[in-house]
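1st attempt posting a full record on here, be nice pls
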Amino acid sequence: MSTTATPEVLWAQRSSSVDPEKNFIYLTISVPDVPKESLKLDLKPQGLTFSGHSNTLKRDYHLELEFYAEIDEKESKINHTAKNIELKLHKKELKEEYWPRLLKESKKMHFLKTDFDKWVDEDEQNEAPEEDFSQFGGGMGGDFGGIDFSKLGGGAMPTGDEDDDEGSDDEDMPALEGEEEAEGEAKGEAKKTDA
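the predicted structure (as tokens):
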């Protein structure tokens, strides 16, 4: 006898008050190996119902979602893969603001998670890449989707050995542990060569 489980659901969104193509919800129902024959997906303006059987996990899945606002189910797209069911749900109302949440009810759902691979902050969505997320790696397996964290600091850290004529604010900053001796030696050598 198989038990019915709720699948994990990942979501992200974009919004636009002028372009319907940029006003949508990304929804991923994470259920591996559900053949088309056992997949039932009923999409309505107010929500969706999903049920399916995973052959590898030998488990039935069921999900009912009631959306925060209406979607245009005729414009929405579904991509069924061996790993999951991906949906691109077009929001019916064109608005600049994001939906405050995916579901009508505001209580926390344990199976519902933000899709950080596809999420973009509201004020940065116009710079976001269109539709193609292939530059992001798989999940959060440790490579963090190819993000170079050294570039997130907003520029190079001052090393203390730049010569600038206007006088540098670096002098006011205390040296890091271990750098004090090295900096002192470097300044001592600099004085010898100037003399």
